[in-house]
């Protein structure tokens, strides 16, 4: 039931304002600190705050240069922005914090140009600076992890997330999700489940509905592990929180995997009848479910409708299935046209034998014999003996007794039909004798013999 889509990953490439918004997650706290620790704000006389403020302080020239570069980046004048960044990095006596901010802006500049590896290297340089504020360190690690996802370096993404988790006292739910996503992308589905579930549980504990793409990712992990009972639980939560027809259809597929085809049929039928799913994709599956549960008439009606609408092709497979549905519903006359069409299209001997059976049921002996003979001649039959029994029956009912006998003799060579064939042969032989007796000519009597008989009958008895 190729059943299932993967959840979107963090760090996917974006464009325009989306890129800027993504970057702001990583740098807004940084620029807030720039404004709060501008040269004027850094003049505090409190000795217990002096060391911290010196760590994050920024000189007026560097501060103004960064603002100018930021405007160039926002205007997408990337080349000139990078030139000024390089020029600014060449200045002497930059504080570690100033160097970190310059590299941070360089990373953003590269990111907007989709030069992701250059951006990653810039952010690594941010992290190399001593006495880095925790907020900047954490936001940089998170941005780097997302970039590694973008370039599909999932092992490095995982390592970066783990570096981030090591500096966090209580990692947020989205950090656990990043860890789970990295493990998922590496094919480590079993290892991916605990961090994904942790993130989802954290949301629940906060009274929040887990994000849809988080539940989807957990669903896919269970799918990859063929853990259908747990996948069923996730799907039920998805349907409750984010009701979609596709999830209900996937739920039907899971019921199929669990062997509960009754529930699968109920869900698929409901979606089909309400036009939530199209016949092109699901009509044949629904018809098969109807047949599986002994509802052949509904199977035939679904197939007939979709074939007439040309949403499913009139190929041998679908025509044969329609014929089978009508045949199982004891509608032999309706079963014949699609089966005849399928048989002619495929030249499959088995289809002609099925056709012969339908003709026999309708006592159309000539057509039955023709179909059986065609099927036998086509070859490739599973049961030649059964086909010859049918052929013999059709010939027998046409009074072609000697031909019927030969067909039964051929069937009797297979031990599986030996007994039935012998019974038929005895019956045919008796019919041949009866026919021959009835057709036997009596000897003609001479005229004198007749006269003597008449004379004897006319004489008075003594």
Task: Give a verbal description of the structure.
There is one protein chain. This protein has 462 residues and is mainly α. Among the domains are: 1-165, Serine Threonine Protein Phosphatase 5, Tetratricopeptide repeat (Alpha Horseshoe), CATH 1.25.40; 170-242, Serine Threonine Protein Phosphatase 5, Tetratricopeptide repeat, CATH 1.25.40. Helix content is 74%, strand content 0%. The protein is built from 24 helices and no strands. Helix 16 (296-308) runs antiparallel to helix 17 (316-328). It starts with 15 loop residues before the first helix and ends with a helix. Residues 1-55 have low confidence and may be disordered.
Could you give a quick summary of the protein structure above?
The model is unreliable at 1-55 (pLDDT under 50). 74% of the residues lie in helices and 0% in strands. The protein has 24 helices and no strands.
Number of helices: 24
Number of strands: 0
The rounded distance between the terminal residues' Cα atoms is 101 Å
Main beta sheet: strand number and arrangement? none
Return the CATH architecture of the domain at 1-165. Answer: Alpha Horseshoe
Q: What pattern of helices and strands is seen along the backbone?
A: HHHHHHHHHHHHHHHHHHHHHHHH
Assess the beta-strand content as a share of residues.
under 5%
Secondary-structure-based class equals mainly alpha
Q: Helix proportion of residues, in percent?
A: over 70%
Form type: rod-shaped
- Radius of gyration, rounded? 42 Å
> Residue ranges: pLDDT <50 for 5 or more in a row?
1-55
The assembly state of the depicted protein chains is single chain
Overall residue-averaged pLDDT value: 84
CATH class of the domain at 1-165: Mainly Alpha
CATH topology of the domain at 1-165: Serine Threonine Protein Phosphatase 5, Tetratricopeptide repeat
